[in-house]
């Protein structure tokens, strides 16, 4: 049996078991089996947002909520974006209602809240699940080593931060209580 035929068979077997098989690894040494820059999502206005546009930029992805004790981090996130946005850094916000029902609003309500209260200008995406059976593909990539090639991670609450480098490699997973201006974040952005 040829290697391609074997991979096709194994992929088909995975589908029959109800498991989506990951693409074959790009190579040895922890290389991701899928590319961050191949991902896409839908922004808060319902338009497609391709991560290919993020090539060459350092990216922070954060799951957000409007009624959380960590919601004031929006202010710091916006300041971080303003400080480093012209230096090849971008924040992508993903509203999520999975933790304490703290993001119950519609996309329009979420956007209005973010702009009115925190002047958010960084891209906000449509509301997603960051864990569980309906986990968004971006969060599948962020939390599974077999996809990102770096490490497994678990999103435990709102305002969990993931840092992805210019080449699309997952660099850090930082829990909710970590400040957007934590030294690990700013040193990483500045290349220290």
What does this structure look like?
There is one protein chain. Helices cover 30% and strands 15% of the residues. The strands form two sheets. Strands 4-3-5-6 form a four-stranded mixed β-sheet, covered by helices on one side. The chain has a two-stranded antiparallel sheet with strand order 1-2. The radius of gyration is 17 Å and the shape is globular. It has one domain: Glutaredoxin. With 192 residues, it is of the alpha+beta class. A hairpin with a 5-residue loop joins strand 1 (40-42) and strand 2.
Strand content: 15-25%
Low-confidence stretches: 1-30
Q: What CATH architecture would you give? A: 3-Layer(aba) Sandwich
- By DSSP, the count of extended strands is 6
Give structural attributes.
192 residues, alpha+beta, Glutaredoxin, four-stranded mixed sheet, two-stranded antiparallel sheet, 6 helices, 30% helix, disordered N terminus
Provide a compact summary of the structure.
With 192 residues, the protein is an alpha+beta fold.
Helix/strand layout:
Layout (H helix, E strand, L loop, with lengths): L2 H14 L23 E3 L5 E3 L7 E7 L8 H12 L4 E7 L11 H12 L18 H7 L1 H4 L12 E4 L5 E5 L8 H8 L2
Parallel strand pairs: 3-4
Antiparallel strand pairs: 1-2, 3-5, 5-6
């Amino acid at each position: 049996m040829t290697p391609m035929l074997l991979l096709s068979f194994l992929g088909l077997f995975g589908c029959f078991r109800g498991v989506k098989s990951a693409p074959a690894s790009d190579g040895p040494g922890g290389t991701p089996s899928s590319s961050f820059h191949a991902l896409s999502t839908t922004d808060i206005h319902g338009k497609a947002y391709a991560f290919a546009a993020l090539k060459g930029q350092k990216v922070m992805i954060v799951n957000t909520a409007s009624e959380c004790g960590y919601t004031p981090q929006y202010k710091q996130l916006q300041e971080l974006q303003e400080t480093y946005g012209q230096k090849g850094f971008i924040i992508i916000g993903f509203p999520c209602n999975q933790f304490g029902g703290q993001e119950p609003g519609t996309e329009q309500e979420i956007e209005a809240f973010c702009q009115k209260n925190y002047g958010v200008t960084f891209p906000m995406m449509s509301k997603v699940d960051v864990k569980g059976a309906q986990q968004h593909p971006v969060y599948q990539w962020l939390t599974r080593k077999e996809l990102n090639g770096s490490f497994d991670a678990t999103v435990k609450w709102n305002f969990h931060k993931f840092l992805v480098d210019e080449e699309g490699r997952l660099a850090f997973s930082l829990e909710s209580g970590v400040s957007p201006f934590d030294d690990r974040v700013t040193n990483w952005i500045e290349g220290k």
